[in-house]
Amino acid sequence: SMVAGILLTLFLTPVYEASTLVLVATPEAPSSIVRPIVSENLASQIATISQQVQSRSNLEKVIDEYKLFSDPDHKNMFMEDKLANLRKNIKVDLIQSRSAFSIAYRDNDRERTMRVANALASNFIDSSLEYREEKAVGTTTFLESELENMRSKLEGTEKQLSIFRNQYMGELPEQLQSNLQLL
User: Fold this and answer.
1) Is the pTM of this model over 0.70?
2) Per-state percent for the chain, helix, strand, coil, to nearest 5
3) How many CB atoms lie within 10 A of CB 41?
């Protein structure tokens, strides 16, 4: 067993794994005052973002940028096979207790492994920011339309109140004391 272990360490190529922990920040405003913009749970958000980051277009950018599968052994591979191999080497794990998730990437080149793992984490963060921005823009648009509706209702109510006060000038309950003093 000792000889087999030594032979394996000499002839097997090393596989490196780089992982990044991404913490998910919760909203700072109290939920009783301001509803959270993103109401989905963490697992579904991460699943959505994971699908976006592991999409064909994003992974093709990573393959081109970091020259993955450019060695002679992989020259004749189809792009779908390269994408499948890359997806197989990417692992996303949800850590419920810390409101976080980790992104791990495996490769046999330690420098490239680190750079690709950082690129994947950056893609996750960018996708998350875009997702939150879209939700925030939608929420802002909705709130602005509701504010405009309430403003027009308030102006209408104020006009009606002004007309009522002019029509019943001197007969209003708040004028009772001054009317009694005049009498």
Assistant:
1) no
2) 65, 10, 25
3) 9
